[in-house]
Design goal:
Layout: E1 2-6, H1 16-28, E2 33-39, H2 54-68, E3 72-76, H3 86-92, E4 95-97, E5 101-105, E6 108-113, H4 123-133, H5 135-143, H6 146-164, H7 169-172, H8 176-186, E7 190-193, E8 200-206, E9 209-215, E10 224-229, E11 232-237
Parallel strand pairs: 1-2, 2-3, 3-4, 6-7, 7-9
Antiparallel strand pairs: 1-10, 5-6, 8-9, 10-11
Helix pairs in contact: 2-3
Length: about 240
């Protein structure tokens, strides 16, 4: 048996290649899987459960099929899809996780995060993150018409794309000190996250011991999945 972790698929109708890769992954890679963790940015944009179309419903149905086979699915918000709510989770049969979440895989404690909370050098982004994740702001956003929410989402994506082009790689990556701080806060030696699109296994020191930070990759052009078994962990191709 195994546990699979993925992140940053950015599913959307304009990228059928990534959607096909994900559906192929569900069919071919989950046969011995007992749980699937999706650590944020599952969708490229999400303006509310009430805006779901046939594309989103199709993805939900495919996830639901997995849960009907006895596979547990856990979903964490990303910076692109933090408005995913109870309706989608019910249709997909998945459980929504807080960021960060402390869990255990085959007896090994592990801390899970989307990863954007660790990019503290990007001060402008962190300010906007706190603003839009405020429960009151989320409530007010849901009161806006779908048209207004689509316009706001398009504006935010355009701003993000523009700023991404001028920000240094150092600012957009995680702050190493924040990684150590988070591991020590939760008293664990293993952190798994996405967001940065830089798949790798990093060695570090936390709690005065050796620790690991495993970064999940995006799915362009090829997806990466972290497979966890009772014998260990490995980053491998999603297909």
């Amino acid at each position: 048996m195994s546990i699979l972790l993925i992140a940053d698929l950015h599913l959307n109708e304009e990228r059928p290649d990534i959607t096909e890769a994900f559906l192929s992954f569900l069919h071919n890679k989950t046969k011995d899987c007992e749980a699937l963790y999706i650590l944020g940015d599952f969708f490229h944009v999400w303006i509310g459960d009430d805006a779901m179309g046939e594309f989103e419903h199709t993805i939900a149905r495919q996830l639901k099929k997995l849960t009907e086979q006895g596979i547990k699915i856990y979903l964490m918000h990303g910076n692109r899809d933090f408005a995913i709510g109870k309706t989608f989770c019910k249709l997909a049969g998945c459980t929504l996780l807080k960021d960060p979440t402390l869990t255990s895989f085959y007896g090994t404690p592990v801390l899970l995060s989307h990863g954007d909370i660790l990019c503290t050098k990007d001060i402008d982004y962190q300010k906007k993150r706190r603003f839009y994740r405020n429960p009151l702001i989320l409530f007010l956003l849901r009161l806006l018409s779908l048209k207004k929410r689509k316009q706001l989402a398009a504006k935010l994506r355009a701003e993000s794309k523009m700023k991404k082009g001028i920000k240094s790689a150092d600012i957009m990556d995680v702050t190493p000190e924040e990684v150590v701080k988070l591991l020590e806060k939760y008293k664990v030696q293993l952190l798994v996250h996405g967001h940065t699109h830089r798949p790798a296994i990093h060695q570090l020191i936390a709690n005065q011991q050796h620790a690991k930070r495993i970064v999940l990759g995006d799915w362009e052009p090829n997806g990466k999945v972290l497979r966890v078994t009772s014998e260990g962990m490995s980053l491998e191709p999603a297909n």
